[in-house]
Structure formats: structure tokens, C-alpha cells
Amino acid sequence: MLGLVKGLGITLKNMAKPKVTYKYPDEPLVMPDRFRGIQHFDPEKCIVCNQCARICPTDCITLTGKKHPDPEQKGKVIDTYDINFEICILCDLCTEVCPTEAIVMTNNFELAVYSRDELFKDLNWLHNNNTHIRSENSTNLMPKAGGKAK
């Protein structure tokens, strides 16, 4: 009987406190700036060095490149870039090792899907995922006075 009274006392005491829940679907959560969310990929900056794929601990990144179509230009051009978010642990290693900052983390975290096949994201999807980019990386995406990004 004493346990029941104690439990009701705790319940009544907490009923007077303010609510700490969020109206999540209606009001988006503001995540801290260092939150590691879904990556944003800028194919124009990628030099196809494969460092992101090599450092990935889960081998969820695959990319291919081809020689530059202009014979005067050196280097490669990105052909495909895919991330399997079914096994990606959002460790941020791929963004840290990228020499050109072609891949940066965002604060997006919503990846709920009905099929696992939809968790394979390609170059176009990752390029269009450009909302809520970390403020430390957003300066690299802003266009310069000449019209091109850094």
C-alpha cells in the first residue's frame, strides 16, 4: 500500500511540471552544429581520389571516375558516387579526409523509408541534400563574387 501512495505522489508532483516534449513533425528540431547527419556531396569539387571510400569503416561508399573528356585537362571526373545508408554509421571520417571538401555533413537526420532499397543514395540525391549544412562548411558552399564557389 505504501508503494502505491509513493507512486501516486511522484505522479502528482510531476503533473505540475512543464512539459518537455517536442511537436516534432510539425516543428523541426534544431540540432547542434556538430551533429553528424546525412552527407551532402558536391560533384564539381570531387577529384576522384577515393580517400573517402578507403577510410570508410563499413565500406558503404562506392565511387567511380573516368578520364576528363577534355584532353587538355588533367585528372578525373566523377562518374558515380553512392552511399549505402543501411550500413553507414555517419562517423564523419569521409568528410574529414576529403581534400577538396566535396563531401560535408549536414544536420539532416530523416532517413525513414519503407524499403531498404531506398537507403541506397546516389550522386544526384546527395547533391540535392543541401539543407541544414553545418555552419563551418556552409562558407565553402557560398558563391564568390565571380559566381563560383570556393
UniProtKB/TrEMBL annotation:
Residues the record lists as binding [4Fe-4S] cluster 2: C56, C88, C91, C94
Positions of the 4Fe-4S ferredoxin-type domain: 37-66, 79-108
PROSITE patterns to which the protein is assigned, alphabetical: 4FE4S_FER_1, 4FE4S_FER_2
SUPFAM superfamilies found in the cross-reference section: 4Fe-4S ferredoxins
EC number: 7.1.1.-
UniProt-annotated location(s): Cell membrane
A biological process term (GO) from this entry: aerobic respiration
Names of required cofactors: [4Fe-4S] cluster
Membrane topology: Peripheral membrane protein
Gene Ontology CC terms: plasma membrane
First and last residue of the signal peptide: none
Keyword match RNA-binding: no
GO molecular function: 4 iron, 4 sulfur cluster binding; iron ion binding; NADH dehydrogenase (quinone) (non-electrogenic) activity; quinone binding
Catalytic activity reported: a quinone + NADH + 5 H(+)(in) = a quinol + NAD(+) + 4 H(+)(out)
HAMAP family the UniProt entry points to: NDH1_NuoI
The family this protein is said to belong to: Belongs to the complex I 23 kDa subunit family.
Quaternary structure annotation from Swiss-Prot or TrEMBL: NDH-1 is composed of 14 different subunits. Subunits NuoA, H, J, K, L, M, N constitute the membrane sector of the complex.
Function: NDH-1 shuttles electrons from NADH, via FMN and iron-sulfur (Fe-S) centers, to quinones in the respiratory chain. The immediate electron acceptor for the enzyme in this species is believed to be ubiquinone. Couples the redox reaction to proton translocation (for every two electrons transferred, four hydrogen ions are translocated across the cytoplasmic membrane), and thus conserves the redox energy in a proton gradient.
Full protein name: NADH-quinone oxidoreductase subunit I
